[in-house]
Specification:
Elements (H helix, E strand, L loop, with lengths): L9 H9 L5 H16 L2 H6 E7 L2 E6 L2 H9 L1 H12 L6 E4 L1
Parallel strand pairs: 2-3
Antiparallel strand pairs: 1-2
């Protein structure tokens, strides 16, 4: 039995769907939240009350003033790391409040 030439691997199809303009922003936000939860540590996670991606701006809501200050000082490093995790340049600005 011959395979059709237009057959694609399921993973390839799912990646194409995820990268569509309607799905990609939600998927990017999911990846950011997943990375944040796995990489930032217990204290930061406990004090983070919300993360949302609106366009190219990432909004991070935290309770601790000292954490807010530390995150504000680390914005450039965070932007670089998050874009590496996502696999393309998405986050251009971070607002910590």
């Amino acid at each position: 039995m011959m395979k059709k030439s237009n057959e694609q691997l399921l993973g390839e199809v799912l990646r194409k769907i995820a990268r569509s303009k309607k799905v990609q922003p939600g998927y990017d936000e999911y990846l950011i939240k997943k990375w944040w939860g796995e990489s930032m540590g217990a204290i930061i996670n406990e004090n983070t009350k919300g993360i949302s991606l609106k366009g190219s701006t990432l909004f991070i809501k935290v309770e601790s003033a000292s954490l807010r200050s530390e995150l504000n000082m680390s914005k450039l490093d965070l932007i670089k790391k998050l874009n590496e995790v996502i696999g393309h340049s998405v986050v251009e600005k971070i607002v910590v409040h």
